[in-house]
Protein backbone atom coordinates (compact mmCIF):
# COMPACT_ATOMS: atom_id res chain seq x y z
CA UNK A 1 0.00 0.00 0.00
CA UNK A 2 0.99 3.62 -0.28
CA UNK A 3 2.38 4.04 3.22
CA UNK A 4 3.45 2.06 6.27
CA UNK A 5 1.86 4.84 8.37
CA UNK A 6 -1.83 4.24 7.82
CA UNK A 7 -4.34 5.58 10.33
CA UNK A 8 -7.59 3.62 10.42
CA UNK A 9 -10.71 5.27 11.78
CA UNK A 10 -13.47 2.84 12.69
CA UNK A 11 -16.77 4.47 11.71
CA UNK A 12 -19.96 2.55 12.49
CA UNK A 13 -21.94 5.24 10.64
CA UNK A 14 -20.24 4.71 7.26
CA UNK A 15 -21.66 2.11 4.93
CA UNK A 16 -18.47 1.95 2.84
CA UNK A 17 -14.71 2.15 3.32
CA UNK A 18 -12.96 5.35 2.28
CA UNK A 19 -9.38 4.59 1.25
CA UNK A 20 -6.64 6.70 -0.43
CA UNK A 21 -6.90 6.41 -4.25
CA UNK A 22 -3.58 4.58 -4.70
CA UNK A 23 -4.59 1.97 -2.11
CA UNK A 24 -8.05 1.63 -3.66
CA UNK A 25 -6.44 0.92 -7.03
CA UNK A 26 -4.02 -1.61 -5.48
CA UNK A 27 -6.90 -3.47 -3.82
CA UNK A 28 -9.02 -3.61 -6.97
CA UNK A 29 -6.08 -4.68 -9.15
CA UNK A 30 -6.10 -7.90 -7.12
CA UNK A 31 -9.66 -8.71 -8.26
CA UNK A 32 -9.73 -10.34 -11.72
CA UNK A 33 -12.22 -8.62 -14.00
CA UNK A 34 -12.66 -5.45 -11.91
CA UNK A 35 -13.36 -2.42 -14.10
CA UNK A 36 -12.87 1.21 -13.07
CA UNK A 37 -15.35 3.57 -14.72
CA UNK A 38 -16.03 6.29 -12.11
CA UNK A 39 -17.36 3.41 -9.99
CA UNK A 40 -15.49 0.16 -9.58
CA UNK A 41 -17.42 -2.77 -10.99
CA UNK A 42 -16.50 -6.20 -9.76
CA UNK A 43 -17.19 -9.39 -11.70
CA UNK A 44 -20.40 -11.14 -10.73
CA UNK A 45 -22.70 -13.54 -12.47
CA UNK A 46 -25.94 -11.95 -13.64
CA UNK A 47 -25.75 -8.36 -12.40
CA UNK A 48 -23.11 -5.75 -11.74
CA UNK A 49 -21.51 -5.51 -8.33
CA UNK A 50 -20.21 -2.10 -7.24
CA UNK A 51 -17.28 -2.01 -4.84
CA UNK A 52 -17.84 -0.50 -1.39
CA UNK A 53 -14.16 0.49 -1.17
CA UNK A 54 -14.23 4.10 -2.32
CA UNK A 55 -11.24 6.30 -3.21
CA UNK A 56 -10.97 9.36 -0.95
CA UNK A 57 -8.05 11.71 -0.37
CA UNK A 58 -7.76 13.34 3.05
CA UNK A 59 -5.65 16.38 3.91
CA UNK A 60 -3.32 14.70 6.37
CA UNK A 61 0.36 13.87 6.66
CA UNK A 62 -0.67 10.23 7.10
CA UNK A 63 -2.78 7.99 4.92
CA UNK A 64 -6.23 7.63 6.47
CA UNK A 65 -8.67 4.79 5.96
CA UNK A 66 -12.26 5.20 7.14
CA UNK A 67 -13.37 1.67 7.93
CA UNK A 68 -17.15 1.34 7.80
CA UNK A 69 -19.78 -1.38 7.52
CA UNK A 70 -18.11 -2.97 4.49
CA UNK A 71 -15.59 -4.40 6.97
CA UNK A 72 -17.52 -4.23 10.24
CA UNK A 73 -20.43 -6.42 9.06
CA UNK A 74 -17.99 -9.35 8.90
CA UNK A 75 -16.52 -9.10 12.40
CA UNK A 76 -17.47 -8.76 16.03
CA UNK A 77 -16.06 -5.53 17.41
CA UNK A 78 -15.34 -4.37 20.95
CA UNK A 79 -14.77 -0.68 21.72
CA UNK A 80 -12.60 0.01 24.78
CA UNK A 81 -12.95 3.77 25.17
CA UNK A 82 -10.99 3.95 28.42
CA UNK A 83 -7.89 2.38 26.86
CA UNK A 84 -8.49 3.93 23.41
CA UNK A 85 -8.52 0.67 21.47
CA UNK A 86 -10.78 -1.48 19.32
CA UNK A 87 -10.72 -5.27 19.09
CA UNK A 88 -12.06 -7.51 16.31
CA UNK A 89 -12.93 -11.19 16.22
UniProtKB/TrEMBL annotation:
Peptidase A1 domain sequence ranges: 1-89
GO-annotated biological processes: proteolysis
Name of this protein: 19445_t:CDS:1
GO MF entries: aspartic-type endopeptidase activity
Keywords: Aspartyl protease, Hydrolase, Protease
Pfam families: Asp (PF00026)
Family per similarity comment: Belongs to the peptidase A1 family.
Transmembrane intervals: none
InterPro entries the record matches: Aspartic_peptidase_A1, Aspartic_peptidase_AS, Pepsin-like_dom, PEPTIDASE_A1, Peptidase_aspartic_dom_sf
PANTHER family tied to this protein: BETA-SITE APP-CLEAVING ENZYME, ISOFORM A-RELATED
Amino acid sequence: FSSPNITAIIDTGSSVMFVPPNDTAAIHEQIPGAVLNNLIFLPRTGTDCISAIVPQEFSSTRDVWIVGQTFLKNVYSVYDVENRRVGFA
